[in-house]
Queue: 2 jobs
Job 1
Amino acid sequence: MHTQRGAVTLVADAGNIQNVLLKDLNDQQRQCVTHTYLNNTLCIAGAGTGKTRVIAKRIAFIVAMGHSTDSILAVTFTTKGASELKERVASYIGSDANMILMGTFHSICLKLLRQFAYLLDGYTNQFNVFNPGNCKLVLEDVLLDTIKYADPRTINTYINQISLMKNKLITPDHYDSYVADNLEVNFTAHKNGKLLARVYRDYESSMRRQNVMDYDDLIINMIRALDIPVVYDYCRDRFKFLLIDESQDTNAAQFKLIEKMSGFNNIFLVGDTDQCIYEWRGARMENMFDFLKKYPDAITIKLEQNYRSTKTIVKASNTLIKNNRNRFDKTCFTENSTGERINLHTATNSFNEAEFVVNEIRKLANTGYEYKDIAVLYRVNALGSLFENELASKRIPHSVISESCSDTIDLNDSVKYSVDNDNTVKLQTVHSAKGLEYKIVFVIGLEENTFPCYNIDEKDAAAHMEEERRLLYVAITRCQEKLYLTRACKRMVAGAWRILKPSPFLAEIPHVLLRFV
Ligand SMILES: Nc1ncnc2c1ncn2[C@@H]1O[C@H](COP(=O)(O)OP(=O)(O)OP(=O)(O)O)[C@@H](O)[C@H]1O
Ligand SMILES: [Mg+2]
């Protein structure tokens, strides 16, 4: 008996399931959606191969098979990703999609902790959540108490380090032994592990005293809550299907959470190791392989057919990413057209670069492209302002997509993104463009120490280059049709011109795929 609303329509008509959900899927995609829906599954797949599409269809399929919408938990990387997923699922099963718990790790944990936080030491269900700005104020007080000074740099160093520790599930009590075991720990006050442990501990107790959680606490506290039988039983009895997109960027804490919530043993983990771009925030692409160790019976499905981009773009991105040594081998192909060559522009200086890009945007708009088809992607936020000014002065509608932690948390649980629907050129960092696609993409600032950006944390040089290369891979693979790579020979940095060499990545893109414009 299928009592689920919405499901009834589809379950009643098996032919309809076939038509609606299984059309426009290749064999591997179809396997993702159907055959394995009662198993642990790892879907490891390149950019634009339909990962997000199969998640949406799999959710709809589960409902269509008569399972309750309450039994599904789907995790996306951003709140915007969640709203898009909701829309896609709704297009298959209608408004029942609203009853499915879909969101980022943060927003899902927030929702569950509103039910269960009363079981944790020091919290009520009405706990507050502090954004990073508020957390810094708490830390400032702690630092003034312990080391008697709290300049913004010190505050940042400590807050980042505490966050990293939390995401690695290292408590203040464990910090000392962690430092001893991990000599690569990157913290200037490294020798001062004990001091950090003390600051971390004081910060924790201050937050708890105020009935307040930071974003990381949402995950950690949910993990703690799952040690309590009523919480564990509730989740195990409720969530029969877990689906996780962008799993290459989950950190240790998030992975632990997945494990703890997998009572029914049915996890669908989707990701692309080549798109792991949050290592600096504790992301571990290894989680995907650990999943296979943890669940040896899990089925692995590879998706390699790209549906997004031209052959030229797919080839360029394949060639680029093959320079990474630390990767899971896969090669994307596409049946899309060859498309045009990749446009490479070298500007005399950064102002000329912005002028060039905006001129091209004007020309493209005159040839029938809409503004919303176009994105300008950069490595760090600061690079966007020249383009913003130039677009404003030419009266071209544009929006800057800000990248902040709030992208992964939606405290009001109301989805407020509308930028996708508006007809503007998007200016955004590569990080914030994850999962998105545009007909036309400009990747700007392809210079040494700009993209790849300067190794500010002095992390292992090879690992740094590999993460930067993955970022460029993400940038390039956002593009469907026309890709532009630009660089400036000099750029104004802190009031002085700085001469810049081309990005070493430019030499990794086959020359025959380029057109010099
Ligand atoms: N079988 C298919 N037939 C036609 N179009 C498809 C098919 N599979 C996926 N697509 C389209 O290809 C594009 C990329 O799909 P999707 O965004 O799901 O890929 P992805 O693997 O999640 O990409 P990313 O790695 O960037 O997150 C979308 O426009 C999607 O609608
Ligand atoms: Mg995706």
Job 2
Amino acid sequence: MKIGHADLKSSEANEFGRTAACRATFILSPSSTTTSMETDLSTTHLQLTIVPCQKASYKMSDSDTGKSYAGMDVSDLRRSAVQRKLRRKDLKDDPFQQFEDWFELACEVVQFDPNAMSMCSVDADNRPYSRTVLLKSFDERGFVFYTNFESRKAQHIAANPEVSLLFFWPTLGRQVGIRGTAEKLSAAESLRYFATRPRGSQLGAWVSPQTSTITSRAVLKNKFEEIKQKFANREVPVPSFWGGYRIVPREIEFWQGREDRLHDRFLYSRELDAWRLERLAP
Ligand SMILES: Cc1cc2nc3c(=O)[nH]c(=O)nc-3n(C[C@H](O)[C@H](O)[C@H](O)COP(=O)(O)O)c2cc1C
């Protein structure tokens, strides 16, 4: 792992990336309390490399005027072939180390939110729902994100902890799919991360009754002002209804896009204390 030159937090880098339309290159360095395997994104160090935004690599059909997407023939979307391959001999025995390799590169080349992942859960009637969440840390125990414990996803997990995660890094032509079980982090772990968040995000966690119906945006703004007053001049405590989940994986699949749809897919499946590795047809 390389050590960054700038001392910015990832959230600041994202803001920077958005407003200045540049690419922030994440240079990961393990925090002092972590093992060599663990990548704690809340303490990620950054080196900011200012480069122009990449041109989109999608080519629309000729019938696409560029003015309206309505009626666009999406079957004609084309993406330039990615000149990468994934060979059995390149794969690590440990899927977390393999993920670390891919994630490190994704952080270098994916312009925005390389840690964004689709997280899918099912309700009590087994009806699925997907939404995006941000990976905040990972190690050999699993993949961690933070959320509201009264949200829909939390209700789903309470009824059925089986979930899936999906990363898609188009610039690399790569996808990583994870299936496993969601476990709540300990209050101490959630508190440790909460303390690293910008104050505005800490206050925001108190304000939003995630997934509940609200009558207007004013409800949020008024609540925000109220909470700001309440915690003025003191640390914002972590709400009891907020914290993290760790997804403990049973399967991790690495997918590398190749020419002629002959993609490379490798599936790691947990078998007691070991991982079985198989190639899957694309
Ligand atoms: C890029 C991106 C990152 C997000 N990160 C998170 C996150 O880390 N935690 C979270 O609770 N919601 C996050 N959200 C919002 C969720 O997608 C979702 O709207 C919210 O968690 C409510 O989901 P639920 O009603 O299914 O529980 C993010 C959304 C986007 C687009």
